[in-house]
Amino acid sequence: MDMTGEQRIPASREAVWKALNDPEILRVCIPGCQRLEKTSDTDLSAIAVIKVGPISARFEGVVTLSDLDPPNSYRISGEGQGGVAGFAKGEARVRLVEDAGETILHYAVSAQVGGKLAQLGARLIDATAKHMSAAFFSRFAEEVTGLQASPAGKSVPARPATTTPRGLSAFQLALLALAIAGAAAALYFFGGAGGALGHRGGASTGDLSAAIILILVGAVGYLLGRLSRMGTPVIVIDQSMLEKLSALSSERRDQ
């Protein structure tokens, strides 16, 4: 089976060439690859799990880089054994062309399989090979673009987190202040009015004030939870905090 294609990468040719020779980047980009380690300047050992139709096999083999012409082109070839599933081998010729500050990666892939895999039919094998090739070069372009975005050569988050001191936005702080003010008002009113209300009500004023505090805290927690979906921090109201609020209201009532 043979296939050709190209992938435009918004990075310099030197950056693309460096990535093409980085085992870790290649490992991440190769579908099903579990291990890819350099054994020499041009040889790597590889383990990959490949699924073709109903057959899934674990292949162990070697990958070799040859015909190196940095930073213009090279050939990457490999061969692996998958036990009873058969064998697979192939190569890809890669050529890099600069274009308006970006790089066009041209590739020509040829592959061959044997054993049970070969019995699945040429159409299924060709479709799988084309899908894997397209997935590899697409992921490779994403990896190089991510590396290019960072001066240190490491991917950076697309949206850096910005928070006020203690991790709260101004709007969240305002909501929290409102909850505290409401809780204080409830404690003052029901606690201070405890002598006047006395024991006329069926429910204690401490329980009533605690209920109001819980409602206020719950409302703020709900709003903060909605905000958290947009990537903003969340305040966690746990059982110990609720117990402290209840104890505080009881002390205020006893006074």
Structure, explained:
This protein is an alpha+beta fold. Helices cover 43% and strands 29% of the residues. β3 (43-52) and β4 (55-69) form a beta hairpin. The longest helix is centred in the middle third of the chain and has 27 residues, at 122-148. It starts with a strand and ends with a helix. Residues 155-168, 193-203 and 227-238 have low confidence and may be disordered.
Name the poorly predicted regions: 155-168, 193-203, 227-238
- Major sheet details: 7 strands, antiparallel
How helix-rich are the residues, as a percent range?
40-55%
Order of helices and strands: EHHEEEEEEHHHHH
Q: Roughly what fraction of the amino acids lie in strands? A: 25-35%
As a whole number of angstroms, the C-alpha radius of gyration is: 32 Å
Strand order of the largest sheet: 1-7-6-5-4-3-2
How would you state the average pLDDT, rounded? 74
Overall 3D form: extended
| Tally of alpha and pi helices | 7
SS elements, strand count: 7
Please identify the structural class as seen in this structure: alpha+beta
Kindly report how far apart the N and C termini lie.
Answer: 87 Å
Question: Which tags fit this structure?
Answer:
255 residues, seven-stranded antiparallel β-sheet, 43% helix
Give a nutshell description of this structure.
The chain is an alpha+beta fold and 255 residues long. The chain has helices at residues 13-20, 23-29, 122-148, 170-192, 194-197, 205-228, 239-254; strands at 2-9, 33-38, 43-52, 55-69, 73-81, 87-99, 102-114. The protein has a 7-stranded antiparallel β-sheet, with helices on one face.
